[in-house]
Amino acid sequence: YYGQEIKRDVGNLVKWLFLAVVVGCVTGAASTLFSFALKGVTAYRKANEWIFLLLPVMGLIIVFLYEKIGKEDGGTNQVLSTVRSQDDVPLLSAPLIFISTALTHLAGGSAGREGAAIQLGGSIANQLGRWIHLDEEDRHVIVMCGMSAAFSALFGTPMAAAVFALEVVSVGVMYYTALMPCMIASLIASQFAAGMGVTPESFHVVDIPALSLETGLKMVIVAVGCAVVSIIFCMVLNAVAGLYAKWLKNPYIRVVVGACLVIAVTLLLRTDEYMGSGAELIAKAVETGQTDTFAFLWKIILTALTMRAGFRGGEIVPSFCVGATFGCVMGNLLGLSPSICAACGMAAVFCGVTNCPITSILIAFEMFGFRGVSFYLIAVSISYAASGYYGLYKNQTIVYSKYKAKYVNRHTRV
Amino acid sequence: YYGQEIKRDVGNLVKWLFLAVVVGCVTGAASTLFSFALKGVTAYRKANEWIFLLLPVMGLIIVFLYEKIGKEDGGTNQVLSTVRSQDDVPLLSAPLIFISTALTHLAGGSAGREGAAIQLGGSIANQLGRWIHLDEEDRHVIVMCGMSAAFSALFGTPMAAAVFALEVVSVGVMYYTALMPCMIASLIASQFAAGMGVTPESFHVVDIPALSLETGLKMVIVAVGCAVVSIIFCMVLNAVAGLYAKWLKNPYIRVVVGACLVIAVTLLLRTDEYMGSGAELIAKAVETGQTDTFAFLWKIILTALTMRAGFRGGEIVPSFCVGATFGCVMGNLLGLSPSICAACGMAAVFCGVTNCPITSILIAFEMFGFRGVSFYLIAVSISYAASGYYGLYKNQTIVYSKYKAKYVNRHTRV
Question: Residues in chain B with pLDDT < 70?
Answer without folding.
Answer: 414
